[in-house]
Design brief:
This protein is of the alpha/beta class. It folds into two domains: 2-22 and 290-385, Alpha-Beta Complex (Aspartate Aminotransferase, domain 1), CATH 3.90.1150; 36-285, Type I PLP-dependent aspartate aminotransferase-like (Major domain) (Aspartate Aminotransferase, domain 2), CATH 3.40.640. Helix content is 39%, strand content 15%. The protein has helices at residues 2-10, 15-18, 32-48, 53-70, 84-98, 117-121, 138-143, 167-176, 225-230, 273-289, 291-309, 339-348, 370-385, and strands at residues 20-21, 78-81, 104-108, 126-129, 149-155, 180-184, 203-207, 219-223, 314-316, 329-334, 351-352, 354-356, 359-363. A seven-stranded mixed beta sheet has the order 2-8-7-6-5-3-4. The chain has a four-stranded antiparallel beta sheet with strand order 9-10-13-12, with helices on one face. The protein has a two-stranded parallel sheet with strand order 1-11. Helix 6 links the parallel strand 3 and strand 4 (126-129). The chain is globular and about 70 Å long.
């Protein structure tokens, strides 16, 4: 009965007819219902121009409310950015402008570049913690903090190894020390729960083309009210400042513009609301299936994958011994073969993985099944026998 349920879910994903797809950590394929939503959204523009623009805008604003509720925060604390690099560039500029003299940030060595480049480009010193066997303990992160540290910038789930951080424990420790907690949750949400209150998160981003099932639709950008008061945006666009009383467009010139107090201060300009319509459908799809059920399915698939990998001459680099450290991502290294050529060989046999940090990254999603894992293992065996 359980497999029958997931077989029906797989019908929403035409990719499963063509490929054994283990690359959702790069970009998830979109289900048919999301594809149809986006087509309808563009079809309206094709036939009616922007006649229904306000309706579409209202839907994207309602989606902000849904996402805020999932994060356990208020709608006023979330907005959209074009991507995580853009959102963190806003944050970096605000810290540079309003932060104390000589401050630094602590981060993790395995971070994706969008988590550090926006800050380093502003000349903000960053200290990078090294992992031990792929693991970053809360204690190792806190050990890197010094008297000039303003906060920690890190990912909920590491993009390469899939290591999952102890978010509540770290957030609590940082809050007790008066330090900022700036989080990239792109490889976690919406599969894994994020509670910005329990985790004491000050800033959070989620780019949805990974696990959001909607291709490139932008980034969810959360900032706490206290963060915005202490570190207001150092930049502005036409939608991020308050318009005059008699217009919705701030057409006034040579005036001192007043930014919104809410997260709308980062709302520089119009987003692709057609893509956001697809995200709205994807979020409803998650809710329809049940996010806990999805996590259980992914855990079951990764359990099986790990058991099969242990029968091969490979090193499992991801820290998989403790459940709390595991995610949907498993990183491996072939002991006696070339990883890059192995990934190319897999693709020739319609099995899609990726190379990260010179190793093979396998990302299981809920539309995968056990037969596809067997296919992956069989092709790997075939390659290593060559």
């Amino acid at each position: 009965m359980e497999e029958k349920f997931w077989d029906e879910i797989r019908e929403e994903f035409p990719v499963t007819v063509n490929l054994a797809y283990f690359h959702s950590a790069g970009m998830s394929p979109i289900p048919t219902r999301v594809f149809e939503t986006v087509v309808r959204a563009y079809e309206k523009i094709n036939k009616f121009g922007d006649m229904y623009f306000l309706d579409d805008l209202e839907r994207s604003n309602a989606l902000r409310g849904k996402l805020a509720e999932m994060l356990n925060t208020k709608t006023k604390n979330v907005c959209y950015a074009h991507n995580t690099s853009t959102a963190f560039a806003f944050v970096a500029a605000a810290l540079k402008k309003s932060g104390p003299a000589g401050f630094n940030l602590v981060s993790l060595h395995d971070e994706f570049p969008s988590s550090n480049i926006p800050f380093e480009f502003q000349g903000i010193p960053m200290k990078f913690v090294e992992p031990e066997n792929g693991i970053y303990t809360v204690e190792s992160i806190l050990d890197a903090v010094d008297g000039n540290t303003l906060g920690v910038v890190c990912s909920h789930v590491q993009y390469s190894t899939g290591f999952m951080l102890e978010m509540e424990k770290l957030g609590k420790a940082l809050r007790e020390r008066g330090l900022l907690f700036i989080v990239n949750a792109t490889q976690a949400f919406p599969v894994y729960d994020v509670d910005v209150e329990k985790m004491h998160i000050d800033v959070l981003t989620v780019s949805f083309h990974k696990w959001g099932l909607c291709a490139v639709a932008g980034t969810l950008f959360f900032t706490s009210e206290s963060f915005r008061k202490e570190y207001p945006s150092a930049m502005a666009g036409w939608l991020s400042v308050k318009p005059p009383a008699d217009d919705f467009i701030p057409t006034q010139k040579n005036v001192e513009y007043e930014a919104h107090e809410t997260a709308e201060q980062y709302n520089f300009g119009t987003m692709n609301i057609q893509a956001l319509a697809g995200l709205d459908t994807a979020i409803e799809f998650y809710k329809e299936i049940g996010r806990e059920k999805i996590r259980e399915r992914i855990n079951s698939l990764t359990d099986y994958l790990i058991s099969q990998l242990r029968e091969l001459p490979v090193d499992i680099i991801s820290p998989v011994e403790k459940p709390e450290y595991r995610s949907a991502i498993i990183l491996i290294n072939l002991k006696d073969a070339d990883n890059l050529k192995a990934v190319e060989f897999l693709r020739k046999h319609n099995v899609v993985t990726s190379v990260r940090a010179g190793n093979i990254r396998i990302a299981c999603n809920f539309f995968n099944n056990f037969n596809e894992i067997d296919q992956l293992i069989n092709v790997l065996e075939l390659y290593m026998e060559m």
